[in-house]
Recover the amino acids of this structure.
């Protein structure tokens, strides 16, 4: 019987604490914003922090209080953005974005400077005289970006990495993996892309690569909306201005605008 | 009870018997949360709060319920009570002082299992302090924890930019510098009783 009293003491203290807590949680319940709960449910729940908040819960709270815009979740993509916009009752301009590699050259189209034998990595190759290609701006094709992609959206075939736009969620992780800074995020459903990154003068460029921008300015003249500009001997598209007419593609003689 | 004893208890619990650096309790948050000064500060405030409140509850429980026959129940009962109190504090803060709740964030629930809190409530009993002295001791221990956290977060912010040999990077250099900070606190031994 000696064991009985200590058991009762602990049990009673536990009971008092338990009842106290459950009473407190009922009496002092903070009305959680219904909107916030729904938002948290709509989010993927991966807590990756890509939105810039502490997690899905934090992002939901920020959206519920109107601090954050609903298009910050790259994991959920369009489906999540639509669900969120329904809850918030706002139209969102969440355009889906995809990674884009701004080079179409490879070992055949682009001349080789030397035969590279070594670590099969763009970063390693680019350390040796800026890589084996005559064009020091171009894609080296070892697929550092493909290795970085968490969604297997980049496939390397014939020494060229290709982005599969259906799979790509636009997280942007590949951007920092490319030693040549070739990758950028562009809107899905674009009609034209600039497939060259060479900022050298035209004559030198033509000698080295079959698909290269020589800054002839034909596209710039054709562009009615002013979206295409030649900057540093290279065509640059401002997608917020581009109306998708596609006239620039017709005039490009170098096969850069596709 | 004179003012001198209160003062000496406070001084002793902050410096001589510093929770982290002399008694080596609460090392986990000391190493885990001390990377930045502001998180270290939030954590320390939460610790002070919980230490004082849980002392205020555990001291009467020990002296009026457990003592003298069931003192061996001390550990399990204190753990139970502290866990309940931390959750209660969380609920109350969330309801009435939302900014404080937001500032403390994740650190408050973390304290549920903080050995420094259990340590101070049990040390109060072992040292035979009365109720007011216990509260002062708990408050002092919390302040001591804050002092250690702030000092060490300063050290760690300097470590971020220091040129550390590769084999010492990360946890090793943190532990070495924690040992050095702790050594400096040994200099207080003997002051304030």
């Amino acid at each position: 019987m000696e064991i009985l009293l200590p058991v009762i003491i602990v049990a009673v203290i536990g009971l008092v604490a338990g009842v106290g807590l459950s009473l407190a949680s009922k009496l002092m319940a903070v009305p959680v914003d219904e909107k916030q709960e729904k938002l948290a449910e709509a989010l993927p729940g991966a807590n990756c922090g890509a939105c810039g908040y502490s997690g899905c819960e934090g992002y939901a709270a920020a959206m519920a209080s109107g601090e954050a815009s609903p298009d910050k979740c790259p994991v959920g993509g369009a489906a999540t953005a639509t669900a969120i916009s329904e809850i918030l009752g706002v139209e969102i301009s969440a355009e889906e974005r995809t990674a884009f590699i701004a080079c179409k050259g490879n070992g055949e189209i682009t001349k080789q400077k030397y035969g590279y034998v070594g670590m099969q990595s763009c970063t390693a190759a680019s350390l040796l005289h800026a890589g084996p290609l005559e064009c020091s701006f171009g894609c080296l094709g070892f697929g550092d970006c493909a290795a970085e992609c968490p969604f297997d959206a980049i496939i390397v075939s014939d020494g060229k990495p290709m982005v599969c736009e259906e799979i790509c969620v636009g997280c942007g992780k590949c951007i920092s993996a490319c030693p040549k800074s070739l990758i950028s995020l562009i809107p899905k459903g674009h009609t034209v892309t600039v497939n060259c990154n060479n900022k050298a003068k035209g004559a030198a460029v033509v000698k080295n690569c079959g698909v290269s921008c020589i800054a002839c300015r034909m596209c710039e003249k054709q562009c009615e909306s002013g979206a295409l500009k030649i900057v540093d001997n290279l065509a640059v598209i401002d997608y917020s201005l581009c109306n998708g007419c596609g006239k620039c593609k017709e005039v490009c003689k170098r096969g850069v605008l596709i | 009870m004179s003012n001198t004893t209160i003062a000496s208890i406070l001084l002793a619990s902050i410096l001589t018997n510093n929770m982290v650096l002399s008694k080596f309790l609460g090392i986990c948050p000391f190493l885990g949360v001390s990377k930045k000064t502001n998180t270290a500060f939030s954590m320390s405030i939460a610790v002070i709060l919980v230490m004082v409140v849980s002392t205020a509850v555990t001291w009467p429980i020990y002296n009026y319920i457990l003592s003298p026959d069931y003192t061996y129940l001390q550990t399990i009962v204190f753990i139970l009570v502290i866990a309940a109190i931390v959750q209660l504090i969380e609920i109350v803060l969330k309801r009435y002082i939302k900014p404080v709740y937001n500032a403390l964030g994740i650190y408050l629930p973390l304290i549920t299992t903080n050995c420094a809190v259990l340590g101070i409530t049990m040390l109060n009993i072992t040292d035979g302090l009365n109720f007011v002295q216990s509260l002062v001791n708990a408050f002092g221990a919390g302040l001591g924890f804050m002092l250690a956290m702030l000092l060490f977060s300063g050290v760690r912010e300097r470590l971020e930019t220091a040129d550390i040999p590769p084999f010492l990077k990360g946890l090793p250099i943190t532990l070495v510098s924690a040992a050095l900070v702790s050594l400096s606190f040994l200099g207080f031994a003997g002051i304030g009783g």
Notes: The interface with chain B takes residues 5-6, 9-10, 13-14, 17-18, 20-21, 24-25, 28-30 of chain A (CB under 8 Å). The two ends of chain A are 88 Å apart (CA to CA). Strands of chain A lie at 97-101, 154-157, 160-163, 183-187, 228-231, 234-237.
